[in-house]
Design goal:
The protein starts with a helix and ends with a helix. The chain has 342 residues and is an all-alpha fold. It contains 21 helices and no strands.
Length: 342
């Protein structure tokens, strides 16, 4: 396959992942605040940060306020990181025995991890091992927030990913995919998406295999489809691709087309169809034959033409890329005769 279209698709995914990281920040800001917004002066914020140095002076309310102001202004991230002992204080609360403080401290780390690579490197070194251990915590909120934090840290770049991998984060996140808790699984998928994207072919084959097998059992949605596509760009993808994942993607294709048709507009299209199509386009020749036969047997020609007739930019581009790969592989397949007759 020509590398040019693959590289182009990868670059467009890079932009989407940047937006994904910012969007997660907005979700935390809008949906997950535990107290009312408070407009604090820089002096009040500095006082709260200073309190982190003293265990006896830090309250749950302090931590919740800090969590929120970290979202409100990126400069507050620098205030925490430049205060000697503040990050150590967050780690102390994260690893303490007060569950409310642990969850609030994890939320602070999650929002600190929306900073730049330098900030995330410091957080990964100080808090990474503890965040990784807490992925096993039976309290869903705490485990989820730690997974989100690791994902945000990983999203800052490969250097931070290497630090977290050495601490065992990816191995633990892979195990989280096996837990029968949808919220836990979603948080793990979010984190692994950033690891897989930033690490590219350095994402170890053993992790690649575990994640692909897990994806074949998880619900198909925009995030799992995006992760599937990111992994399909891995050099070892074709050797580790489970048949169950292919079957699942094909079986849910009509549903994803319907969702796309009902909900997507050109300027905001980031749905499972987009990434399912891109993933299928990255398969090998043997799988292309399976795809073509499935399309023919399930009368998907009309469905695909409907998608192409809709002005949906990136989806059209990706679908044409898939059809081009399929045609180059097997131009005489009956599916193309059927398609040309429509």
């Amino acid at each position: 396959m020509d590398d040019a279209p693959v590289n182009y698709i990868r670059e467009s995914t890079r932009e989407i992942l940047k937006l994904n990281r910012r969007s997660h920040r907005n979700e935390v800001s809008d949906l997950q605040r535990s107290i009312k917004d408070l407009r604090l002066s820089p002096e009040n914020i500095s006082s709260i940060v200073q309190n982190l140095k003293s265990k006896s002076h830090v309250t749950v309310e302090n931590l919740l306020i800090l969590k929120n102001v970290l979202i409100d202004d990126e400069k507050n991230i620098e205030v925490v990181l430049k205060c000697y002992g503040a990050l150590r204080g967050l780690v102390r609360e994260l690893t303490g025995n007060n569950v409310s403080k642990q969850c609030a401290a994890a939320g602070c780390c999650c929002n600190l991890a929306l900073g730049d690579s330098r900030a995330c490197t410091a957080i990964a070194k100080a808090a990474g091992p503890y965040l990784t251990v807490l992925l096993d915590n039976p309290i869903t909120e705490l485990a989820m927030t730690c997974a989100w934090t690791l994902g945000n840290l990983a999203g800052s770049g490969p250097k931070v990913c290497d630090i977290l991998v050495a601490q065992g984060a990816v191995s633990k996140l892979c195990n989280m995919l096996q837990i029968h808790n949808e919220n836990i699984q979603d948080a793990a998928v979010y984190a692994l998406l950033h690891f897989a994207y930033q690490m590219e072919d350095d994402f170890k084959p053993e992790y690649l295999q575990k994640v692909l097998i897990a994806l074949s059992k998880l619900e198909v949605n925009a995030t799992t489809s995006r992760l599937s596509f990111t992994l399909s760009c891995h050099v070892d993808f074709k050797d580790n691709m489970p048949e169950e994942l292919i079957d699942k993607m094909l079986a849910t294709l009509k549903r994803t087309v319907k969702i796309h048709s009902e909900n997507c507009v050109r300027s905001q299209c980031d749905c499972e169809l987009l990434y399912a199509v891109r993933t299928l386009a990255n398969m090998n020749i043997e799988v292309y034959d399976i795809i073509l036969n499935y399309f023919l047997e399930n009368n998907l020609g009309e469905v695909l033409l409907e998608v192409l007739n809709k002005d949906s930019g990136s989806v059209n581009e990706s679908l044409l890329w898939l059809l081009g790969n399929l045609y180059n592989c097997s131009p005489s397949n009956d599916f193309f005769k059927h398609l040309s007759s429509l």
